[in-house]
DNA sequence: CTGTATCCTTAGGGATACTG
DNA sequence: CAGTATCCCTAAGGATACAG
């Protein structure tokens, strides 16, 4: 963890909280991981309506933490492309367990039923499927 | 989710964030789940130094969300005993995946090495062991 | 389109005194 | 011991205008 972000303690739960324990960061990771979003404008268009200054701050922070990497689009030189690093992709099991928990406990949750059923039946194979395309990029 | 806490969206990731996506709630759950803490004073004594008003607020909120339940100690009538409900205990897989992620990515993390190694080897059996005593209480 | 900058409001939360 | 009640301050964040 960079010096800019001192940790209260190095308990693993607290470390995670200091990395992505706010109301916005995990939504950006969700968009990168499950919704194939990759540009500033993509994130802006999500239903939760993040504002530009907050989004820029969280992307910068995620980059500093080594969870997200930033590149310039080859097609359009003024367009940035964000993607998950390995550290970011390693968050997948957490995201899946969160999805499972919400699917079980939120009667209104909009989790894709097919994903929840597959998670219930066999989490490892779901992970394999989701990560299948990651190594290529 | 109680009406007092309207959700931005019912995406499962967002539902979880609205339930425990702040800087304190997950630490209380950690203390209940792994550190056998159960009283107001127990939580107060944790290393992250939560203040009394915030702690009271989060406990009340967790109770309203059905993640924590509150009872009065039989020994001491003016002492409250907090414990995880089934909904709260269902957070265990998330907590373990968070622990594993931090163990891998925070060089300074103080996760119990024994736990991390057991997690790496066989997560299901770790869950069985941790939850062994839960049904009794 | 990708951000930056600014203004302004509110929520989060530390400190602490106090009560049953 | 288990909270409640204040005071006060700072950080978070919404809205929006603007710049490369």
Automatic annotation (TrEMBL), chains A, B:
GO function term, MF aspect, one: DNA binding
Record's keyword terms, sorted: DNA-binding, Transcription, Transcription regulation
Lyase among keywords: no
Cited InterPro entries: HTH_HxlR (IPR002577), WH-like_DNA-bd_sf (IPR036388), WH_DNA-bd_sf (IPR036390)
Domain of life: Bacteria
Domain HTH hxlR-type: 11-110
PANTHER family tied to this protein: HTH-TYPE TRANSCRIPTIONAL REGULATOR YODB, TRANSCRIPTIONAL REGULATOR, MARR FAMILY
Protein name: DNA-binding transcriptional regulator, HxlR family
Organism: Halopseudomonas sabulinigri
Record lineage: Bacteria, Pseudomonadati, Pseudomonadota, Gammaproteobacteria, Pseudomonadales
């Amino acid at each position: 963890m960079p010096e800019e972000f001192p940790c209260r303690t190095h308990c693993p739960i607290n470390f995670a909280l200091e990395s992505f324990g706010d109301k916005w960061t995990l939504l950006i990771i969700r968009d990168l991981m499950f919704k194939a979003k990759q540009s500033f404008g993509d994130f802006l268009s999500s239903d939760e309506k993040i504002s530009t200054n907050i989004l820029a701050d969280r992307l910068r922070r995620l980059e500093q933490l080594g969870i997200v990497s930033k590149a310039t689009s080859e097609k359009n030189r003024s367009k940035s492309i964000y993607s998950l690093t390995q550290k970011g992709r390693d968050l997948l099991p957490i995201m899946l367990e969160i999805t499972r928990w919400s699917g079980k406990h939120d009667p209104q949750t909009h989790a894709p039923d097919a994903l929840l059923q597959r998670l219930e039946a066999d989490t490892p194979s779901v992970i394999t499927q989701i990560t299948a395309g990651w190594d290529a990029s």
